[in-house]
Amino acid sequence: MTLKRKIIDFIKRTEIVKKINYNKFVFYFLFGLKSKFGQFKINIDTNCLVMSQYPGAETKGLGGLIAQYPKNFEVLCLTNGFSLIEKFDPVESASIKKQQFAEVMKSMRIKGYKIFDIDDKTLKNHYSTFKKIDISEADYIFLPNVYDNNIDTIALLKHFKQILKDKEHKPELKIIMYESDFPLCTLDYYVNISSIIETKKKYLRYFYPEDKYPGYVDKITAINAFRAIQHNVEYCEAFMAFTVDEFLKIPLI
Q1: Distance between CA atoms of residues 20 and 28, nearest Å
Q2: What class is the 34-248 domain?
Q3: What is the side-by-side order of every strand in the sheet holding 189-192?
Q4: For the segment 90-110, what is each residue's pLDDT rounded down to a tens digit?
Q5: Is 136's pLDDT higher than 70?
Q6: What does the pLDDT look like over 178-214, one tens digit per residue?
Q7: SS3 helix, strand, coil % of the chain, rounded to 5?
Q8: Contact at 8 Å (CB) between 64 and 197?
Q9: Strands (E), 15-110
Q10: Fewest CB atoms less than 10 Å from the CB: which of 50, 161, 184, 230?
Q11: Is 135 helix (H, G, I), strand (E, B) or coil?
Q12: Residues above pLDDT 90, as percent of the chain
């Protein structure tokens, strides 16, 4: 047994930390040494599939990248925003969020998009719907950050692990994690979005209008300014990349 395996087994056996922290520790232990941080590039024939855990998460995490290469992207939103608008009837909330999502995707002029009619916090019960997603042509699949600890994010990642095992995909497929609600612990790639940051903010305001969420969009994009510091530009989106084998090793709750 390797030293790494012994340490992980010891932590799990002695219950030094709660399960969620254990999983985070193992995740960092397995992948924390990733150090390259190069510029992410897309070719004219690159096929990118984005999965988001709620309407707007994809725009937070990589709205700038999508806006730069709209014809390379297909976006799937796995839940309908049923509970995202406080003090609104859930059905009305879902209707508004689905409309916002469609308006942003149309405005971006991306290759394709779909929002599933699955209520928030219930994605774990819908693998039968999830398994119908076609991943066979994707070169890159973008997923929310495992550190989000959102119940639908965990369900999304678990379901995705299963379809990787069950369905055809390209041998060289890369899984890319983006930052929507929480920052990534280590990074592999960045994209300079300085020239398009106002466009990203415009799309974010569809989901978070200034009159209802004052200053919220600037707070969201503050992480893009932070990520840009070491590259001597104004704004960046940042990502962590995995091979299929690496992704399948990530521990989840």
Answers
A1: 12
A2: alpha beta
A3: 38-39, 189-192, 236-243, 174-178, 140-144, 48-52, 73-77, 112-115
A4: 899 999 999 999 999 999 999
A5: yes
A6: 999 999 888 899 999 999 999 999 999 999 999 999 9
A7: 45, 15, 40
A8: yes
A9: 38-39, 48-52, 73-77
A10: 230
A11: coil
A12: 74
